[in-house]
TrEMBL record:
This is U3 small nucleolar RNA-associated protein 25 homolog. Component of the ribosomal small subunit processome for the biogenesis of ribosomes, functions in pre-ribosomal RNA (pre-rRNA) processing. Essential for embryonic development in part through the regulation of p53 pathway. Controls the expansion growth of digestive organs and liver. Also involved in the sympathetic neuronal development. Mediates, with CAPN3, the proteasome-independent degradation of p53/TP53. Keywords: Developmental protein, Nucleus, Phosphoprotein. Residues 88-104 have a biased composition (Polar residues). The gene is Diexf. It comes from Vidua macroura (Pin-tailed whydah).
Length: 714
């Protein structure tokens, strides 16, 4: 129920009232529809995997799950309404893993309000603390003038703001050793293109104490023998990424890979975020001491050193495990040695709510390596936590308005922001965010991209309440409502996608400019197809991006589907990336009374087993199959002889994965296997990721269908 999954949307200390049923609950009800069968543990998957090994076992599995139910009930197992298409599919993966540990929002434990640490408020207050003398860093804000103070102290003029709001960006490109093709864009012409540093001296990076000494130790796990030989504390990738981060330009890096470079990227942006917070807080504490010791009548405008609200860094990550790793990196970077441990408030509670029990993982589940890397640890995707850092202490579960860093999932932040018209909503804490980090953005396409867009619309707005701020300490850029022009956005993804590109291009306004990595794939994922299979790429014409949706549907039912209606074309799997398209096709197939079954991310486990069995035995000619189901489950579908990609996959490696499922069928009829792919000129990025850039150029120029034959060695 929505009340069970609800968390308080308010992060202030004073809030103690119990939330009433409102539009907020209704929102959660749509976000977390959780049928009983979908809350079953992942270990049940092993049963269905084993069950399909033989038809006899499969039959008994199906009968156990559904009893005497008719096949027609299958439709009831899908969420029928199209508005449910944007729901997240977090309930598909180990819900009990999160529900069993996060007692802070479970009414059964007698606690309704979201837990925040209130008792350490004075200890972590920026307003009432001063720079410690022993740190020797009272003048660090002057010494560390570059690049933090250069960026934040820059005073933009009205004409520059107008220029950024109206004029298009100019761009240039450069080839970097590790990042490849780097595109720089900016409206203000005076900002020059960065050059890649071949070597980086940690002492020249203006890292705040103790990061200068702790970073080499924390990061040594990623360093190669070559890096260690040249006494480098960064990998080549980290060196170039941090060079851009430290310049305070926006960054879009679409080649993050959970298996290879994901953790070294996480360490790099954690270093940058922590460095920024330590410098910002040191500036405030130093000015506190100056204000205390100043003579009466001194102009107070010299001490404008903060925003309208305290949170400076917002980190968006998909799962609790990601938040856990980030906090561990922060702790490692702040601890100089075993003797100088930092005090971390509520560490035990954090470990209980964000950690996972290794024994909970079901054994003997065969999944691809990338799946295991993405879905490691606690994969609950509804969370948020405030982190306050002050000198030698860290406070977890700080109320948002007392936090320096907020770590949240898109769903977690969405339920705080709320929707228009709701009484219980809050987004003032986003008003003065200076660094926004969106990691693993591609996963949000599989969860609910609307949550990301909703966040971007509510960040860096003027707050509706003052929240006790001392306006004499607020920077003029914040008072002028220019925060968005100073915000740095770091966006990391595993792929190029128009929706992700749109966020970077339309919601990032950094006056320093943007940097995007734009490498084109030379070879596509089609080269990883190991079965001998003819691939037919059929081009459909469309006048615009919006018309391509209807155009694709008409092309499919007029040109493609008639060729597969014959009974000889049985065992046809239709791969559909969009849930909206899936619903449309399902309704059409019903209307036409076609012999089909279907599986989507909302299909109950019993219906999945039944659909797979019917498809394998040939009792159903077609199987409609959504991309999000494949993303969350990665089942091997047996019995495929004909493949139709209604649209190219979001993840290019899904193309080869689905094609290679054909080898799971024991059949000598290899010559009868077919693969048909629908594409348009608007699918250039996805097409290049599948067939490579050279073939893509040829296919987009040609109006004809393209036939490719993969032998398994290509």
């Amino acid at each position: 129920q929505s009340e069970d999954s609800d968390k308080s949307s308010k992060e202030s200390d004073s809030e103690t009232e119990v939330e009433q049923v409102s539009g907020y609950h209704k929102l959660l009800a749509t976000l977390k529809t959780s049928p009983e069968s979908e809350s079953e543990e992942e270990e049940d998957e092993s049963e269905s995997e084993e069950a399909e090994e033989s038809e006899a076992e499969m039959g008994s599995e199906g009968s156990q799950n559904i009893g005497e139910a008719e096949e027609g009930e299958e439709d009831k197992n899908d969420v029928p309404e199209e508005e449910e298409a944007t729901d997240t599919a977090e309930q598909m993966l180990s819900q009990e893993q999160a529900d069993g540990t996060d007692t802070s929002c479970d009414p059964r434990h007698g606690v309704i309000e979201e837990f925040t640490d209130v008792k350490h408020e004075s200890e972590f207050s920026l307003e009432t603390n001063f720079m410690e003398e022993e740190s020797g860093d009272c003048n660090a804000d002057r010494r560390d003038s570059n690049p933090f103070k250069q960026h934040m102290d820059k005073e933009l003029e009205e004409k520059e703001i107008e220029k950024m709001s109206t004029l298009p960006k100019t761009s240039s490109q450069s080839q970097w050793p590790r990042l490849g093709q780097v595109i720089f864009s900016s409206t203000l012409e005076k900002h020059k293109t960065l050059k890649a540093d071949k070597e980086v001296d940690v002492k020249q990076l203006h890292l705040r104490k103790p990061l200068e000494s702790t970073w080499p130790k924390v990061n040594k796990q990623f360093l190669s023998a070559v890096d260690k030989a040249i006494d480098s504390s960064f990998t080549p990738l980290q060196r170039e990424l941090f060079c851009i981060m430290n310049s305070y330009q926006d960054l879009f890096y679409p080649e993050r890979n959970a298996l290879t470079n994901g953790e070294e990227i996480r360490h790099a942006y954690c270093l940058h975020a922590l460095n920024h917070v330590l410098k910002a807080n040191a500036q405030v504490l130093s000015n506190n001491a100056k204000r205390r010791d100043r003579k009466p009548g001194t102009d107070s405008d010299d001490y404008r050193d903060q925003g309208l609200t305290r949170p400076k860094v917002l980190m968006i990550v998909p799962f609790r495990e990601c938040a856990l790793r980030i906090v561990h990196i922060f702790i490692s970077l702040l601890e100089v040695n075993d003797k100088k441990k930092i005090d971390v408030s509520n560490k035990k509670r954090f470990k209980g709510e964000f950690g996972s029990d290794p024994e909970e993982k079901p054994p003997n589940l065969k999944r691809p390596e990338d799946y295991e890397a993405v879905f490691a640890g606690n994969i609950d995707d509804h969370f948020r936590i405030g982190v306050a850092i002050l000198q030698k202490s860290m406070r977890l579960y700080a109320p948002f308005y007392s936090s320096d860093i907020i770590i949240a999932s898109p769903l977690g932040i969405r339920t705080v922001i709320g929707a228009e018209g709701e009484k219980k909503r809050d987004f003032d804490f986003l008003s003065s965010v200076e660094i926004l980090i969106i990691d693993q953005a591609d996963i949000y396409l599989m969860q609910n991209w609307e949550h990301v867009l909703h966040l971007m619309k509510h960040i860096n707005l003027l707050p509706l309440d003052s929240h006790g701020v001392d306006f004499s300490r607020v920077r003029m850029l914040n008072l002028n409502n220019w925060s968005k022009y100073y915000r740095q956005t770091l966006l990391f993804s595993a792929l190029q996608d128009p929706q992700i590109n749109s966020v970077f291009n339309k919601h990032c306004f950094n006056y320093v400019g943007q940097v995007a990595i734009r490498n084109v794939p030379l070879t596509g994922s089609i080269s990883h197809v190991v079965v001998q299979l003819p691939h037919v790429f059929r081009r459909l014409e469309a006048d615009s991006v919006t018309s391509v949706i209807d155009g694709r549907f008409q092309f499919f039912i007029d040109k493609v589907l008639p060729e597969y209606r014959d009974a000889i074309m049985s065992h046809t799997l239709i791969y559909v990336p969009s849930y909206f398209d899936y619903v449309r096709l399902r309704n059409y197939f019903k209307k036409e009374d076609l012999n089909f079954t279907h599986i989507c991310e909302y299909t109950k486990k019993a219906a999945v087993c039944r659909a797979r069995r019917f498809f394998l035995k040939g009792e159903k000619q077609f199987l409609l199959f959504t991309e999000r189901f494949h993303f969350y489950k990665r089942y091997t579908i047996k019995g495929i002889r004909n493949l139709i990609f209604y649209e190219l996959p979001t993840y290019s490696h899904f193309y080869s994965e689905i094609c290679n499922m054909l080898k799971a069928t024991d059949s000598g009829a290899d010559a009868t296997w077919t693969c048909t792919v629908l594409y348009s000129k608007y699918d250039a990025q996805k097409l290049a990721a599948v067939v490579g850039i050279d073939r893509t150029a040829q296919m987009l120029q040609s109006k004809k269908n393209v036939h490719l034959f993969v032998t398994g060695e290509n």
